[in-house]
Specification:
Oligomer: single chain
Shape: globular
Radius of gyration: 17 Å
Order of helices and strands: HHHHHHH
Strand content: under 5%
Number of strands: 0
Length: 149
């Protein structure tokens, strides 16, 4: 029983940290908070730099912010985590596709280049863990969908 409580606390810590990080970056993109470029600026950037259609850019921003919120409070966690995972794995792919980035990481070892791949990959991996493990005892999922357990 003790291990179960520790696991639930671990899931809570993971959810809070991932949820806050995703909401921070999502609010930059959606609302222009924290020095972000806002909805139209982000749509333009995604389209011009990566060729992402505006609809998919909007869906990515929504998944980032709303997925972060869902993860934070533990509501519809597998769905929220799936959206976050998709956005973060796509961000990882886009960064890895940058010309010469992987070569620079493995040959020059520039500390500035490593987080461009590692950070979104780690966030995507955390989202996968939440998809597989669920939100845990301290969540709205537990309160609404599994109240007796």
């Amino acid at each position: 029983m003790r291990d179960s409580k520790r696991g639930d606390v671990g899931l809570l810590v993971l959810r809070i940290s991932l949820g806050l990080i995703m909401m921070f970056y999502g609010s930059q993109k959606l609302f222009g908070a924290f020095g972000g470029s806002g909805f139209s600026g982000t749509i333009g950037f995604m389209h011009d730099k990566f060729g992402i259609p505006p609809l998919f850019g909007a869906l990515a921003m929504f998944a980032e912010f709303a997925g972060g919120l869902g993860i934070l409070v533990g509501l519809l966690t597998p769905i929220a985590a799936f959206g976050v995972m998709c956005v973060m794995l796509m961000a990882t792919y886009e960064n890895v596709s940058s010309p010469g980035l992987l070569n620079d990481i493995f040959t020059k070892g520039s500390p500035a280049d490593i987080p461009r791949v590692g950070f979104p990959l780690m966030l995507g991996t955390a989202a996968i863990a939440l998809m597989l493990l669920g939100a845990g005892r301290y969540s709205l999922d537990k309160k609404f969908f599994r109240p007796g357990k």
